[in-house]
Amino acid sequence: MLHMFAFAQSYMPIQGSTFAKGVDSLFDFTIWASIISFVILIGGLVIFVVKYQRRSDNDKTAYITHNVFLEFLWSFIPLCIFMGIFVWGYVLYKDMRQFPDNAIEVNVMGYQWGWTMTYSNGKQSGNELVVPVGKPVVLTMTSKDVIHSFYVPSFRIKQDAVPGKRSKLWFQSDRLGDYEMFCTEYCGTAHSKMIGKVRVVTQAEFNEFLAKDKSKMTLAELGQEAFNVKGCVACHSVDGTVKVGPSFKGLWGSTVNHSDGTTAVFDENYARTSILNPQEKFVAGFANVIMPTYQGQVSEEEITHLIEYIKSLK
Ligand code: CUA
Hints:
Elements: H1 7-11, H2 20-51, H3 68-97, E1 104-111, E2 114-119, E3 124-126, E4 128-132, E5 136-143, E6 148-152, E7 157-161, E8 167-172, E9 177-183, E10 195-201, H4 203-211, H5 219-229, E11 255-257, E12 263-265, H6 268-276, H7 300-312
Parallel strand pairs: 1-5, 4-10
Antiparallel strand pairs: 1-2, 2-3, 5-8, 6-7, 6-9, 9-10, 11-12
Helix pairs in contact: 2-3, 5-7
């Protein structure tokens, strides 16, 4: 009986993620609220046109100014419906923005015109995201050139991949299968060909995938290499001792106090800004240390590696 009212399921792609049901229910609610409002409004209009049409030349319209009760109702009822939609949407969105700690992490790089997925063991795949069934997956995304947008209709998730910024997205799929993935931000000539696949596989298949043609080093190890080669090691320790600048030990996810009294959480975007634009904020106690900018000297990939290295020092 209930699925008679479930519009979304009949024309939307398969509900492939744990978010899909909630999103579809809200979508159905807004569709039905619109249909019912349409019927009441247009139906009422037609009835009034027929019932109160002018019947003779001296047919006079009654003098009506207002009706407080009716005016209250037609304002208050829609207000309740809209607030309901707002709260419902907020609850669903909040869930999408709370990233689970035990998730599998994948770095996603958009470029003209494709995607590169990098797993924490260093394994890379192009235009194909492979994830295990029943496990939360967090994507950390950025772009090499212009704005792209990562969209998996079956999962009901979408997030821009923006150059110069890390954006995050998470999902969990409890259903094995292949799902279409699109770039949904116009990004140039071959935008329409920027199509990929999300493959939800068993844990065993996922392990096999990760082990096949993997790189010699994990992302954290590549980060450690960059840490030494790029000279970070001259000023930063990884064991908690203070050299010239703050130590990287335990930095990830911590709250950083700045010399101007402000604070910030040390995350992907904070790390990136600290590498490329270190003079934007000074960590409290290090206000007179001038760190040179690494703008143009480290690639986005190397920043990802350094981030993974700092993460591993938790
Ligand atoms: Cu990338 Cu459209």
